[in-house]
Specification:
This protein is an alpha/beta fold and about 325 residues long. It has two domains: about 80 residues, Winged helix-like DNA-binding domain superfamily/Winged helix DNA-binding domain (Arc Repressor Mutant, subunit A, Orthogonal Bundle), CATH 1.10.10.10; about 240 residues, D-Maltodextrin-Binding Protein, domain 2 (3-Layer(aba) Sandwich). It is about 40% helix and about 20% strand. The chain has eleven helices and eleven strands. Strands 3, 4, 5, 6, 7, 8, 9, 10 and 11 form a nine-stranded mixed β-sheet that branches. The protein has a two-stranded antiparallel sheet with strand order 1-2. Helix 8 links the parallel strand 7 and strand 8. The longest helix has 26 residues.
Length: about 325
């Protein structure tokens, strides 16, 4: 039996909807249903009455719901206890961060943050976007830093998680360029001479963002896939070697564009780009799960900073700008 099965069952008991719980748990509905069935098989009892709508629990499910809550609470308490026994457990902030942001945004953000907030002990867990979100849901980190787009949202329950928007990121296409900054390739290409395309895998978050860009484009792009990976850094290295066109976050190529190693291939047009928010999430503290004091202090600092920036924009007292990137 896996603890995530308990979390799935509790979610289903609360939402009364397979589709809604699957969405909240960041899995497909078929996968979610299989996990509920696995729990039922392990217990040897039917927990869900599948003949009713909305979904409801069977009498066995009602009994097990209380047990599941208690079991999950004991697991989380044991994990919190063990983490608390580590010498740096309570003083270290654990971040779950997608690979791209861990290499580009995170180092500069921490440097600017520490300049005003003070020294900060951090532990970085670099993952893909989905796994980073699941790490937050499963209690494996203190803070989640990730991208967000309205059409590819990070669907965390606003009743359970707090969120701050730290900035934005533009995703657009780049290619190797000459010393004058002229790219080797230019959009849109032609049907007879398609541009070599360095692509993300279909399950990558940035890959889904590129699909949105291509779908929304009023002028079709003529691309021929030559390479595929789920890592933006891998696509950047291939682009630097002249292998083709890659859609990359602006922060990932700032240095290369400045040195005229990479250049935009869209000729300054904005139709082939997407703007994503950079968001920070935390689980809202409760009496049962208060979280680390250092995380509470950091969150209060960031919230105060954002409120100060809002006052400046609305004509209030101007404050010294801080960690904006």
């Amino acid at each position: 039996m896996e603890s995530k099965w308990l979390e799935d069952f509790i979610s289903l008991a609360e939402t009364h909807s397979f589709s809604r719980s699957a969405e909240l748990r960041h899995v497909t509905q078929p996968a979610f249903s299989r996990r509920i069935q696995s729990l039922e098989a392990w217990l040897g009892a039917d927990l869900i009455d599948r003949t009713s709508y909305p979904t409801r629990l069977t009498p066995s499910g009602e009994v097990f719901y209380e047990q599941a809550m208690e079991m999950l609470g004991q697991i989380n308490n044991a994990r919190a206890l063990m983490r608390g026994k580590r010498p740096t457990g309570l003083s270290t902030v654990d971040f779950a961060v997608p690979h791209t942001l861990s290499l580009t945004y995170m180092p500069r953000w921490i440097r600017l943050l520490e300049a005003d907030f003070g020294p900060l002990s951090t532990r970085l867990i670099a993952l893909n976007v989905h796994d980073a979100v699941m790490t937050m849901v499963d209690g494996g980190c203190d803070l989640l830093l990730c991208y967000h787009h309205p059409r590819q949202p990070v669907q965390l329950d606003s009743g359970r998680y707090d969120m701050l928007t730290l900035g934005s990121e533009v995703l657009r296409a780049y290619a190797h360029c000459n010393k004058s900054g002229v790219p080797d390739y230019l959009f849109p290409g032609t049907s007879t001479t398609p541009l070599p395309f360095l692509s993300y895998t279909s399950n990558a978050y940035l890959g889904r963002m590129v699909e949105l860009i291509l779908t929304d484009s009023k002028r079709p792009l003529h691309l021929e896939k030559r390479y595929e990976t789920d890592m933006a850094e891998g696509l950047k290295m291939m682009a630097l070697e002249g292998h083709g066109v890659a859609f990359l976050p602006e922060s990932a190529v700032t240095r290369e564009v400045k040195l005229k190693q990479l250049a935009r291939v869209d000729d300054g047009a904005h139709e082939w780009e997407a703007v994503m928010e950079i968001r920070l999430y935390r689980e809202r503290p409760t009496a049962q799960r208060p979280g680390k004091p250092v995380v509470s202090r950091l969150w209060a600092y960031l919230l105060q900073q954002q409120e100060g920036q809002v006052k400046v924009r609305s004509g209030g007292t101007r404050k010294k700008p801080k960690i904006a990137l």
